[in-house]
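Hi R.,

Here's the chain you asked about this morning:
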Amino acid sequence: MKEKKKDGREEKKGLVELFKVPDE
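And here is the predicted structure, written out as tokens:
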């Protein structure tokens, strides 16, 4: 359960960074 949460959090962060790069 803890491993799944960490994996999802890292994947979500990557998506946010990708969206922030073109957004700026």
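One quick note: DSSP finds one helix and no strands in the chain.

Cheers,
M.
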